[in-house]
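Researcher: Structure prediction, please.
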Amino acid sequence: MIRRRWALSLLAAALLALALWRGGASGWPAPAGQPIAPRRALGAAVLAGQLFVAGGWSGTATQLDTVEVWEASSGRWRAGAALQVARSQHALVAVSGQLWAVAGWSQTRGLVPEMERWAPGAGWQVAGHLPQPRREPGAAAWDNEIVIAGGFDGASDGDLEGYSTRVDVFDPATRAWRRLPNLAVPRRGLVLVASGGQLFALGGYSAEGGFLNVVERYTRGASAWERLDWPITPRTWAAGVVLGDSVVLAGGYNLEGYQARIERVALATGAACLVRPLREPRAWLAAVPWEGGVLTLGGEAAGGMTGAVEWSTGKCQ
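Model: Predicted structure follows.
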């Protein structure tokens, strides 16, 4: 009996240790509950099982060049090689075994045209330039290419000409750019995701339309984007990822303020449902698919910049 109790105690301890390693007392998969440096308008991506968080703005005089990497072996964040160009309102995209920091804004330099590439053992290097620099675009890896859609290149928020419909595609292998048909609706702060041979541009903000629930779909080889009547919440500065046959949209900002709402929308039909909301309503956050769910990182909340890291199953309530 004593041996049996001793064995059960060891098993319980092992299970507890595993739970703590996977995400602390909450039981969420690591690194949920392990905050990053507080910042908004950051980029995040997963490459070869490693999670990278790059750039952003912490409320100081200029943007950040800092990079944090989740170290699974130690269960904590570590400092990575810094970006060559500090930036926020950009995208971080993983494609073909490399990371690319694309677009963005610098308080000291304005719009950032440089594209930076990171590869294992090589650090960050400027490896290209945007044909039209802008901030707050949607960005997605599409097969082995990077798509940049919409964004803003105006002098002020009221600059109607600054809201972009432009869609550019970059081939990292050849360093060549090509154009896709323009979006029908100019906007900034949108979410762009890719699934199979299709692209989906969701939400955002425009000077004329305000906070948008506009969804457009582009099918490879088509001559134009198609407008979809999906019942998503109007918002900008949300984060989105593809999970299976759906897109999951988290957080954002609209007339009601900072959003905790998470929506899951079937890419084939547009059928939508609500997912358990964020614990901390926030906008200008980043998100990545992680262990079968969605990991949201950083952003701006009502109390200021946040380093919150939350994991969601992404499943309907």
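Model: The helical segments are 2-23.
Researcher: Thanks, that helps.
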